[in-house]
Amino acid sequence: MPGVYVSxxxxxxxxxxxxxxxxxxxxxxEPRYLDALCAEIASHAFEWPPETVxxxxxxxxxxxxxxxxxxxxxxxxxxxxxxxxxxxxxxITTDRAAAWRDAGINRASLGxxxxxxxxxxxxxxxxxxxxxxxxxxxxRRAGIENINLDLIAGLPWQTQESxxxxxxxxxxxxxxxxxxxxxxxxxxxxxxxxxxxLGSRYGAANTxxxxxxxxxYETAVDSLAAIGIDRYEISNFAKPGHRSLHNLKYWxxxxxxxxxADAHSFxxxxxxxxxxSVADYIxxxxxxxxxxxxxxPANPTEEQFFVGLRLDDGIELSPADRLxxxxxxxxxTAEGLLESRGPSxxxxxxxxxxxxxxxxxxxxxxxxPAPNHGTKPPL
Length: 379
Description:
Layout (H helix, E strand, L loop, with lengths): L2 E6 L20 H15 L8 E6 L7 H9 L8 E6 L6 H10 L3 E7 L3 H7 L5 H13 L4 E8 L6 H14 L3 E6 L7 H7 L13 H17 L3 E4 L2 E3 L6 H7 L4 E4 L4 E3 L3 E5 L3 H9 L5 E6 L2 H7 L8 E2 L2 H6 L1 H9 L3 E4 L2 E4 L1 H5 L1 H10 L15
Parallel strand pairs: 1-2, 1-9, 2-3, 3-4, 4-5, 5-6
Antiparallel strand pairs: 6-8, 7-8, 10-11, 11-12, 13-15, 14-15
Helix pairs in contact: 1-10, 2-3, 6-8
């Protein structure tokens, strides 16, 4: 069963750490974007009803209830086993939560990032810990109890003490799912740009180093496990029965289709990407052109490492792959970064922290020579 991802890239403000194709966009574009989005969904030939729906962005919680209902009514298969909306703390009211529930939403993911005022102000977030607590209560009273809370390790001014304060709020609120991300340092965010040039704006001069951020992450692994929220993917933790059905499709290489600006799709063989420009997306759809600007064939061997190894269950390797990657498997196993369980290969706890370095080694491994049986080897 496929999943559906819907991109709503409009935000009230652009957070300093954000590297997504979203932001503060002209309000006049929103109704046109909604029309284009519904038109793209309506034009898709669904071969079977989707199992999951995920509204991301951006800040889809800013959508008026009527607009959200209009989008969801265009997607077949309601009620879905899992339908998630990403929400900014402070956007959730009693009426809005009830409207989400009535439209088919049964899971909410809150971009909390931190419960500490100083860290939140530095990154441009407008909520505080009490806002999040009120939002969680509002969602539960509306019947939406499947809740995820996001945290980021490595924010400006973050310390071990303040990180433990955020984790203590997680313990009090007791959500069934938590995501813990390490701050990404790249040129696609304002904070990332500043860190790359060793600048001081956006709190860059007071940002924890890699080792300290890794220590925060390890603290989170232990603290969450102590309250029954166990890691099942590098950045995702859940109580039993509350793993994200939609996100598992990405890591297990299952089909999903994306709608909207910068949305991606995968049918099992080909990966497709829509334009990341909101204006270009609207213009393409209004002119009855495909918003897809890129199609690439999937690489199963490469992808099973990049996405499959992120899962704590690891990946099951074929005999051919075990032969091809025998040297790095042996080396990283000896170094305590990988471990085998029967046919499966997985990261150790220490290996998770060095996962990027390990994966690069696998991608660099040469393919074995094709056997010469007097016929042309398969492509």
